[in-house]
Hints:
Layout: E1 5-15, E2 19-28, E3 34-43, E4 47-54, E5 59-65, H1 68-72, E6 79-81, E7 83-86, H2 92-104, E8 111-113, E9 128-134, E10 155-160, H3 161-169, H4 176-187
Parallel strand pairs: 4-9
Antiparallel strand pairs: 1-2, 2-3, 4-5, 4-7, 5-6, 5-10, 8-9
Amino acid sequence: MEDRIRIRSEEVLSDDWAVLKKTVLDYRRRDGQWETQIRQTYDRGDGAVILPYDPERSTVLLVRQFRYPAYVTGHREPLIEACAGLLDEHDPETCIRKEAEEELGYRLKDVERLFSPYMSPGSVTERLWFFVARYSPTDRISDGGGAQEEGEDIEVLEMPLDEALAGIYDGRIIDAKTIILIQHLKLNPIRA
């Protein structure tokens, strides 16, 4: 692709919680013609997400939290989501183990990496590392709820996997990463 892209200019529009850039570039199409494109990219770093599953009880651990972007576009309820966080300086597995302890209150042992897709590659640079893990009630180390110093106000939810799947279809669960993990786990169950 290096011979098909020429960057003309790049401008930082915002550098607060994340970096928003405007880029003007020339792109050579498959037919050989060059066209000028203007793109904005939003870079807040990569993240990791996990869905813990208890195969003995067929339950999953999720969180419920307020998400302003969903609220401002009409979703008035806090979102039900899989536990997730930004990598910051950590590798994906270290990050998700830390997030599970902070948000869920569980120390997870058997963490399995699945895949790492781009979630919205038209404008967001983030790759999200997906994990599943086996858990049991004995893995609980705290009440969870997130890191207060980071402004987190997280409710921990434990529900049957089949109820979580039903939540996708009845509209209770509308977060893409969570939908992917629930459907993955239903198609590829962790055995007891």
